[in-house]
């Protein structure tokens, strides 16, 4: 397993990490992802550790906390050998203060996650979304206090806009508070908007990227192709509306290119899609999920090879997207505004 530095921090993380959104299956949305119990979760953790994957990602809202609880039990007796990433901000109860990034909610959310995970500290603590109603100074001073108390070791954000992240970094620098070392972002061969603003920001500010849904919300599994019905077992039946919209013809064009390379290399479509992401700037870790051990073992093989430049170019061309303003205009001024990719 390859280990990469997480942004400007001193922390090394595996290029593949394991996402536990499939643990629990308590709600309809998360049941569509999976319903892994403690016994199977423990086995999946075993497989990950054998492969050198020592970073496990969860969130308090995954199956209403059940994902954190199951992960905590699966890690029992080996907490010191792993890194744990979890998240807070989204609604966790009926009250008016049971959501957001206020000092009130973040403090309680952190304590609750520690309890469910059965641990004294969280290695990487993400804000799951941006709270525009809470002053950024309140958010970051709270997170800094949690770092100083030893309950959190590094802070990160997820699903922020570029200005959300840049303003937050400025506030941290102004007051000498802990800064976001990473952003957890949606990025895939069929979702490249991340490259327009967040990736250049990450390069400039040394913010690492932990990629979520690298297979495009289950569309790059190799089971979806032109002229075929959606497979009977697919998260898209129940969760497509929660994920990114993808035009059918665009998806098929990318899958056609993946099929060409799969034939050339003898690798699977998901392995190629994951390997392409490994070559991208700022990517520190790609979060992979799996319903079972077989899926996990297949995805882990994405580290066994490297796409050549011709194959990367084919995928780049097939997945190219029409940019919105001002990004299409900035492409016309590369002499003084070179693009990162």
Explain what this protein looks like in three dimensions.
There is one protein chain. The chain has a single domain, classed as NADP-dependent oxidoreductase domain (TIM Barrel). An eight-stranded parallel beta barrel has the order 3-4-5-6-7-8-9-10, surrounded by six helices. The protein has a two-stranded antiparallel sheet with strand order 1-2. The protein is built from 13 helices and ten strands. It is 39% helix and 15% strand. The chain is of the alpha/beta class.
CATH superfamily: NADP-dependent oxidoreductase domain
If classified by CATH, what would the architecture be? Alpha-Beta Barrel
Portion of residues within helices: 25-40%
End-to-end Cα distance, whole Å, is 25 Å
Q: Spatial order of the strands in the main sheet?
A: 3-4-5-6-7-8-9-10
* Protein structure class: alpha/beta
Comma- or semicolon-separated keywords:
341 residues; TIM Barrel; two-stranded antiparallel ribbon; 8-stranded parallel beta barrel; alpha/beta; 10 strands
Which SSEs are present, and which pair or pack?
Elements: E1 3-5, E2 12-14, E3 16-19, H1 28-33, H2 38-50, E4 55-57, H3 66-74, E5 83-88, H4 103-117, E6 122-127, H5 136-148, E7 152-158, H6 162-175, E8 180-186, H7 198-205, E9 208-212, H8 236-239, H9 248-265, H10 269-278, E10 283-288, H11 293-300, H12 309-319, H13 327-330
Helix pairs in contact: 2-3, 2-11, 3-4, 4-5, 5-6, 9-12
What would a concise description of this structure say?
With 341 residues, the protein is of the alpha/beta class. The protein has a single domain (3-333), classed as NADP-dependent oxidoreductase domain (TIM Barrel, Alpha-Beta Barrel), CATH 3.20.20.100.
């Amino acid at each position: 397993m390859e280990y990469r530095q997480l942004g400007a921090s001193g922390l090394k993380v595996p290029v593949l990490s394991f996402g536990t959104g499939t643990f629990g299956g308590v709600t309809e949305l998360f049941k569509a992802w999976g319903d892994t119990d403690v016994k199977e979760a423990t086995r999946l953790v075993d497989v990950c550790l054998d492969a050198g994957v020592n970073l496990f990602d969860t969130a308090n809202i995954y199956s209403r906390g059940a994902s954190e609880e199951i992960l905590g039990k699966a890690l029992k007796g080996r907490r010191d050998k792993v890194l744990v990433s979890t998240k807070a901000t989204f609604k966790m109860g009926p009250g008016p203060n049971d959501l957001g990034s206020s000092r009130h909610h973040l403090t309680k959310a952190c304590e609750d996650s520690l309890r469910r995970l059965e641990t004294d500290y969280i290695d990487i603590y993400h804000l799951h979304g941006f709270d525009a109603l809470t002053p950024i100074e309140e958010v970051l001073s709270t997170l800094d206090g949690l770092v100083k108390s030893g309950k959190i070791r590094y802070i990160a954000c997820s699903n922020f806009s570029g200005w959300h992240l840049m303003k937050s970094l400025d506030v941290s620098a102004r007051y000498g508070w802990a800064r976001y070392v990473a952003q957890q972002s949606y990025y895939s061969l069929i979702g490249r908007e991340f490259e327009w603003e967040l990736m250049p920001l990450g390069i400039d500010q040394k913010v690492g990227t932990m990629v979520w849904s690298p297979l495009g919300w289950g569309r790059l599994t190799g089971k979806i192709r032109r002229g075929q019905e959606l497979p009977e077992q697919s998260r898209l039946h129940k969760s497509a509306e929660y994920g990114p919209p993808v035009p059918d013809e665009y998806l098929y064009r990318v899958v056609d290119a993946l099929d060409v390379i799969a034939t050339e290399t003898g690798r699977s479509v998901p392995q190629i899609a994951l390997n392409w992401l490994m070559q991208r700037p700022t990517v520190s870790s790609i979060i992979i999920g799996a319903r079972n051990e077989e899926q996990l073992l297949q995805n882990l093989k994405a580290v066994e090879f490297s796409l050549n430049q011709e194959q990367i170019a084919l995928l780049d061309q097939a997945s190219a997207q029409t940019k919105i303003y001002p990004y299409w205009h900035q492409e016309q001024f590369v002499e003084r505004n070179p693009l990162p990719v």
